[in-house]
Amino acid sequence: MDVLKLLVDYGVIGFLIFLSFVSVGTAIERYIFIKRADVSKYKSRQDIELELTKNMHWIATIGSNAPYIGLLGTVLGIMLTFYTIGQEGFVDTKKVMVGLALALKATAVGLLVAIPSTALYNVLLRRVREKLSMWEKVNGR
Question: What is the mean pLDDT of residues 15-24?
Answer without folding.
Answer: 96
